[in-house]
Design brief:
The complex is a heterodimer of chains A (305) and B (395). Chain A is α/β, with parallel strands linked by helices and 305 residues long. Chain A folds into two domains: 10-125, Rossmann fold; 143-294, Succinyl-CoA synthetase domains (Rossmann fold), CATH 3.40.50. In chain A, 34% of the residues lie in helices and 21% in strands. In chain A, the strands form two sheets. A seven-stranded mixed beta sheet of chain A has the order 3-4-2-1-5-6-7, with helices on both faces. In chain A, β5 (68-71), α3 and β6 (92-95) form a beta-alpha-beta unit. In chain A, α3 (75-87) runs parallel beside α4 and α6 runs parallel beside α7 (219-230). The two termini of chain A are 24 Å apart. Chain B has 395 residues and is of the alpha+beta class. Chain B has helices at 5-14, 28-36, 75-82, 139-145, 163-173, 180-196, 233-236, 246-253, 272-284, 301-312, 331-345, 360-369, 380-394; strands spanning 22-25, 49-53, 66-69, 86-87, 97-98, 102-106, 110-121, 126-132, 150-155, 199-210, 215-217, 221-224, 257-260, 265-269, 291-294, 319-326, 351-357, 375-377. In chain B, strands 7, 8, 9, 10, 11 and 12 form a six-stranded antiparallel beta sheet that branches. In chain B, strands 1-6-2-3 form a four-stranded antiparallel beta sheet, with helices on one face. In chain B, strands 14-16-17-18 form a four-stranded parallel beta sheet, with helices on both faces. Chains A and B meet through α4 and α5 of A and α9 and α13 of B.
Chain lengths: 305, 395
């Protein structure tokens, strides 16, 4: 088991004829992901790097019934691309694009929320994220596949390379990962820590979860409160940005301490108060997970059943 | 992106949000000329003026950046004092900001002061209106001491700010009922401005009720979404490069994401999250980070070379820590880039390189054999400790 994606997942790529889309569609296919083709408006009917190309997501859905759409469309058109995928009935949308205006994402989220409230299932991962990978199953994103190893730990993170760092440690220690989800560094995104924690809690293969957060917002705190109330599995947390000064954006649009809220120190304290095992040194994430698992008595008692 | 008060006020005016009339000058002579020619705000019989230093930071009043002139003849003297002065406020950092422009506006008879702001609320995914009767104070202080004096209301950007919302805020602020209509219109215009120009934050502190019963934005602070600037030409034209750090401007030309900090150990990292974590680990090892620098996925010789030049452009830098996690890009290529770049830029400070990921062993071997004066590390914390030690040893 794993969450959201596995060996059987059928994937299309929006923006497949672009430089990024083309490169990563090929890399995902090489990893073993079932990439069935892609979408570039105006290039329907052609074949690109061995992939069939359609003019619209609707055409792709009619032709190959994909489960997932992976988006590499430039920021100005990305919101439209996400909505097109949702409209075509795609249930999991993974948007890699960095630099989408935040008000565009607010509108996209509203529409996705309404669709879900009306009974559809449409999930968005990202934007501005590395994607999702179930080792030995499906790599749907830009992460280096080979550093992953099938195993026991679920990883959820706002960051890219920092996630690879944690994965490297987990794989090196032989723990491996069940699924890794990069939820992205933007202030408004699709799936959040909390949503992914809930999925990991239900997944029998996942025994512990690594949650990698950053300064800005309060999503980590909300997720930790959820973990205390509903989770039995240990959660190991790291928050990047202890040394980041307030008011300065640290690369990610979402990584900014504003109005005195969202500092790393406050987040760490809040996480600890909810029973998350917080590490202050990212070099020991793997080791800390191993310790938590080896104790054997790691199963927590949720406060709410 | 931030803009100056005078620019924000011009935008407010174009959106139907009332602001005091004023003029921006960059010399005392210009102020003298306007006054003697009785131009614009000096043509009427107004006698009180506010003379305000224009920098991208709050807290100007306390720092001496705002002067009240009781007669036009006092203005040139104030302009002279402010121009060229370095203002240090709680938002500028200890180095302060140089004043290059001064805004002169008509004074207003203040009857009441309020606080009003619109911010993008990431968790509710709405625009949040914040209003308070405690105008002119730092909102963080009000929020800590008197949270009940702040009203927070969500506004759906698609719907805009409707009359009922405006009336509710007006009632909370205790405005006279006769002004509910005017206030609602202003709030609705401000929301339209927020949405149409891709704002992240709009703050009016204080919003005043004048003695003759008008609402005026006495201050104006606006910041925009950098990601949306591609479709906001008019906003982008208001960018003031003098307000930005030279090294940061240089970095952005090379598509490097650089933020200058106060410490002495520079770092060069691929990826924003790992870059932040690297800064934290430098601090954990007993050092102080000199910057945030994300070189992105590439880390080619050219990128690394530009990055080295930018890091070394900061005289406070006493050592450099390169931390690259090779994913798609293989470590031996990164090592090649570092070796070539380090030879070209002639490093004069200690360098520690930590490579991990794809072909890290080969990359580290290349670095060791390069003959360059550098240390190699495998683990993140080990690398941070090595650079902190090296910098201490070099002193």
């Amino acid at each position: 088991m794993s969450i959201l994606v596995d060996r059987s997942t059928r994937v299309i790529v929006q923006g497949i004829t672009g430089k990024e889309g083309s490169y990563h569609a090929t890399a995902c296919r090489e990893y073993g992901t079932r990439v069935l083709g892609g979408v570039t408006p105006g290039k329907g009917g052609t074949v690109h790097e061995g992939f069939p190309v359609w003019d619209s997501v609707k055409d792709a859905v009619d032709a190959v019934h994909p489960d997932v759409s992976l988006i590499f469309v430039p920021p100005a058109f990305a919101a439209d691309a996400i909505l097109e995928a949702a409209e075509a009935g795609i249930e999991l949308i993974v948007c890699i694009t960095e630099g989408i205006p935040v008000q565009d994402m607010m509108r996209v989220r509203r529409i996705l929320d309404i669709r879900n409230e009306e009974g559809e299932t449409v999930r968005l991962i990202g934007p501005n994220c590395p994607g999702i990978i179930t080792p030995d199953g499906a790599k749907i994103g830009i992460m280096p596949g080979y550093i992953h190893k099938r195993g026991r730990v679920g990883v959820v993170s706002r960051s890219g390379t920092l996630t690879y760092e944690a994965v490297w440690q987990l794989s090196g220690l032989g723990l491996g990962e069940s699924t890794c989800v990069g939820i992205g560094g933007d202030p408004v995104r699709g799936l959040n820590f909390l949503d992914v924690l809930a999925l990991f809690e239900k997944d029998p293969e996942t025994e512990a979860i690594v949650m990698i957060g950053e300064i800005g917002g309060d999503d980590e705190e909300r997720a930790a409160a959820f973990a205390k109330a509903h989770m039995t599995k240990p959660v190991i947390g790291f928050i990047a940005g202890l040394t980041a000064p307030p008011g300065r954006r640290m690369g990610h649009a979402g990584a900014i301490v504003s109005g005195g809220k969202g500092s790393a120190r406050d987040k760490m304290k809040a996480l600890e108060s909810y029973g998350i095992i917080v590490v202050d040194n990212p070099s020991v994430i793997g080791k800390t997970v191993a310790e938590a698992l080896s104790k054997g008595d790691y199963r927590r008692v949720p406060t709410c059943h | 992106m931030n803009i100056h008060e005078y620019q924000a006020k011009e935008l407010f005016r174009s959106y139907g949000v009332a602001v005091p009339s004023g003029v921006v000058v960059d010399s005392a002579d210009e102020a003298r000329r306007l006054i003697s020619e009785k131009q614009g705000i000096f043509s009427g019989n107004s006698s009180v003026y506010a003379v305000k230093a224009q920098i991208h930071a709050g807290g100007r009043g306390k720092a001496g950046g705002v002067k009240i002139a009781k007669s036009p003849s006092d203005i040139p003297g104030f302009v002279e004092t402010l121009l060229g002065k370095t203002l240090v406020t709680h938002q500028t950092g200890p180095e302060g900001r140089l004043v290059r422009k001064v805004w002169i506006e008509e004074g207003a008879q203040i009857s009441r002061e309020y606080y009003l702001s619109l911010v993008l609320d990431r968790s509710s995914r709405r625009i949040s209106i914040l209003a308070s009767t405690e105008g002119g104070m730092e909102i963080e202080e009000v929020s800590a001491a008197h949270p009940e004096k702040i009203l927070t209301l969500p506004v759906d950007p698609e719907m805009g700010c409707k009359g009922f919302v405006g009336r509710r805020v007006a009632a909370f602020l205790g405005l006279p009922v006769t002004l509910y209509g005017a206030f609602s219109t202003m709030l609705s215009n401000l929301t339209r401005f927020f949405v149409e120009t891709d704002c992240m934050m709009v703050e009016i502190n204080p919003l005043i009720l004048t003695a003759d019963g008008r609402l005026l934005a006495l201050d104006a602070k606006v910041s925009f979404d950098d990601n949306a600037l591609y479709r906001q030409e008019k906003v982008l034209a208001l960018r003031d490069l003098f307000e930005e750090n030279e090294l940061e401007i240089e970095a952005s030309k090379h598509r490097l994401n650089y933020v200058k900090l106060d410490g002495s150990i520079a770092c060069m990292v691929n990826g924003a999250g790992l870059a932040m974590a690297t800064m934290d680990v430098i601090a954990l090892a007993g050092g102080t980070p000199a910057n945030f620098l994300d070189v992105g996925g590439g880390a080619s010789k050219e990128t690394v070379e530009q990055a080295f030049r930018i890091l070394l452009g900061d005289p406070a830098v006493k050592g450099i820590f390169v931390n690259i996690f090779g994913g798609i890009v293989r470590c031996e290529r990164i090592a090649g880039g570092i070796i070539a770049a380090a030879k070209d830029v002639k490093l004069h400070v200690p360098l520690v390189v930590r490579l991990q990921g794809t072909n890290a062993k080969e990359g580290r071997e290349m670095l060791r054999e390069s003959g360059l004066d550098l240390q190699v590390a495998e683990e993140l914390f080990e690398g941070a400790q090595k650079i902190v030690q090296a910098v201490k040893g070099a002193k």
